[in-house]
Specification:
This protein is an all-beta fold. It is built from no helices and 2 strands. The chain has a two-stranded antiparallel ribbon with strand order 1-2. The termini are far apart.
Length: about 55
């Protein structure tokens, strides 16, 4: 569907209200000024996940 939404108020914390079963949401960040970063994901049903480069 190629629908995009910019979250301007708090770009470090992306909030997704609901992801229906058997579907997905793609999230993108533009990272400037560094090579080290960590992405943390917290989900009520899915739990916690973290990935560093």
């Amino acid at each position: 569907m190629d629908i995009t939404t910019e979250q301007k108020m708090d770009p470090t914390n992306i909030k997704v209200n609901n992801i229906a079963g058997n579907s997905f949401v793609t999230v993108r960040w533009l990272v400037k000024g560094g090579t080290k970063f960590t992405v943390n994901v917290s989900s009520k049903k899915g739990g916690l996940a973290s990935k560093s480069n």
